[in-house]
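Q: Study each token:
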Amino acid sequence: MEHKYSNLLKENSIMPTKQRLEIADIIFKKHQHFTANELIDRIKSSNLPISQATIYNTLCTFESKGLLKMIDIQNNCKFYDTNLQSHHHVYNISTNKLTDIAVDKVEFSRLPEIPKNVVLEQTEVLIKVRNK
């Protein structure tokens, strides 16, 4: 029987190795945000024999093929997001949690002028908060 993520990986020109499929099982089961370290911890707690290098390489491959979105919080923390639909985020500095905000919950009254030789593809907002 073929693994449920084999076709997804093949369709994106990714060889569906046993370790990549095990990683896919963990990250694609639901829309979620996670860091590489959180994924490493989950893999260790699941007793899967996958090296950190393989985990990082797989995340890089999945991101480069458009299966994951990377969100750089700019504090040496990068989150991966399995929700590829357009949306915004709230990042809580106190809890290190990233939460989705629906596109229709943020309105722009005006955008800055962009150079004439480019076209606006998407606008994403990252709101940083901290606990009181």
Remarks:
- Residues 86 and 123 are 8 Å apart (CA to CA).
- The beta strands are 33-35, 69-72, 78-81, 87-92, 97-102, 126-129.
